[in-house]
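[User]
Protein folding is very new to me. Any chance you could explain this protein sequence and its structure tokens? I have pasted everything here:
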Amino acid sequence: MIARALLASASVVAIMGSFGRASAQEATTLPPIDIAAARAASDHRGGGANGGAAAGYRFDATSTTGPWGERALQDTPYSVYSVSTPYIENRVFSTTDEVFRVNPLTQLNMGQGRGYGSAIFIRGVKQQSGFSQIDGLNMSGVTDLVLSLEDKERVDVLSGLSGFLYGPAHVGGLVNFVTKRPTPTPFSSVTFGNYGGSQPFVHVDLGGPFEKGSDFGYRLNFVKSSGETAIDDNFVDRWLVSGALDWRPLQELLFQINYSHQHIYEKGTLADWGSFNGTFPHFSASILDPAKNYGQPWTFNKNDMDVLGANVTYDVTRNVKFRAAYQYVDIESENLYAGDNIAYSNGSYSYSLASLYNAPHVQRNQAWYAFTDYDLDLLPIKAKTTFGLYGSSYSLRQHQDNTLFKGLGTFPVAADPVYVTRPIFTNGAQPYFRQQQLDQTNWIIGEDIAFNDQWSLLAGASLANIKATNFNTNGTVSSYFDKTRLTPTASLIYKPLPWLTGYGTYIQSLQNGGTASTSFSSLPVTNASQALSPTTSEQVEIGAKANVSQILLTAALFQIDKANTFYKANGASYTFTNDGRQLHRGLEMTATGKIFDDLTVTGGFTLLDAKITQTNTFYLLGQPPAGSAKNMGKLYVEYRLPFVPGLTLTGGFNYVGPQVGNVFAPTNVRAIEWLPSYVTGDIGLRYETRIFDTETIWRVDMTNIANASYWQQTEMLGAPRTVAFSATAKF
């Protein structure tokens, strides 16, 4: 079925190409790309083919390819989908939840309203802690990662394995948040608006050279937002200060540095509807109102994060280039949650309310890379050899009595939330200790060979190492492993026409086995804070990319073989375990760009067939892994009205198909709970004009227009109808 779908897509590409091949060739024969200038155009003027609205939010190049460096997106043998700053601004998005909700490669799982960072599925694999990067540098191990969007140039999602590119990582994919850089010409903008509910905000964005002809450039972003979201009693206070400096003392030498501090305080975090011992079936979400807060108004999440980064690029000679970067991240967090553990008995549902307090704890992550590129031209063959190191180091410090659970009673499920008195917590009084240390290194060597204009090869190998140590409160080691694995990758790229590229990629990856959390579905975990041994995964991918006129079409068939890691239910607790293997097969297709000058389309779909192929837990064998949706589709359309200059109508939908809620054996007979599919619609408009010779943009965006109540996953309701608006003045 998937193969037929890919053949059908290739036919569509060929048919479309027959009508616009000449213009496609002209539009997609890529000249040398000035990345800094392209980014600036993308960010601020809305033009160019690098993410601006005038280009249909389409990108020509990507930097999310690790050691390979900047590459034309059409000739990148991986599935990469980017959401640009102009798109984020025009949709008035404030959280990564909204970005992942509209991305056709990502299935939003746990939202930020729960108090943690966003959790997503990519290719049927759950990505939670450590799947994110900032400027291509790993955030391995970090859990409380809640990132602001206003100082980001774009959000890239690379789906599938990335072991050679970025070292040991989650096998489903990764997300790279690219920081805004200084602009080649002076730029400033001020935006006022409301992120939904009663969340007024102001965002100031400034950039440019310090003076005309200066070797120094700067970029500053300031954000302040405070108020109640579209959900009752869910209050968010947030501010961000971010700055970046570029210095080019020589044409061949570039130094860059950036720093940001963000503060987020959320009060009244959302309910965690856990499933007690595999309650089957889940009650209908229609019982609940998505605009009501079924958590407790006294819960909160506090997060302060500092990010300091620096990098250097130096063209040593015409054939030799050196690249290096370093990043330091410090996150101080404190959170108090309430979870609702569902139970079913005698035809009615009830939930046991429990609370969990995590005393202040500190996460620190350092990441770095250093690569040397050597170019060699042997006509007609062109080759580039890359050698270097990619690494990261993560530590978690917390109180010896950091976590405490308290039960709060049992209540019937009803349309109106039940609020109880806040319990008293006394934990967090004992000294700090280092609870976890995670170190990862990845030595790589790669060859980028262009045999001619049609055929090229990317091939390499990485020597990946993971060292993980967990400590008891007295400082003794509770678990330790040190594993090294040589993992290869190879991509064969064929470009029969300038506008069409096909590729096949094989890659292996050493994957961190993960560390058990202190709780799951608001219940304790028997092996809390224990690390599982690393595992090895592999992926085969066949894909095609076509630049047809003003639109980029992509298709990828993939197969992933990975470890089966999950939380096993024990009644009133869970155990984090690694048991067997999973096989994920699927098809991804995306489209980004302009069908006509006035009509923009972005989106795509994913079809997935995921199964547990090996396990000692009999009722899981042959079943799909919990949480993965069988299919999903996302579409967003903009239409610029030709008879009303400056006015653009927008809209779209987001569909997620049936997903596995729970897989269990209540009476030694296997049973699967499928959560129903859901679809939400979005509408909006944008008006661009000049007032007193100042460029201004007015925006309104409404999501979930029907205020549909649905299970985003077994533990969390989807977001309610939300209306956001903004006005920007550019100088």
About this structure: The two ends are 53 Å apart (CA to CA).
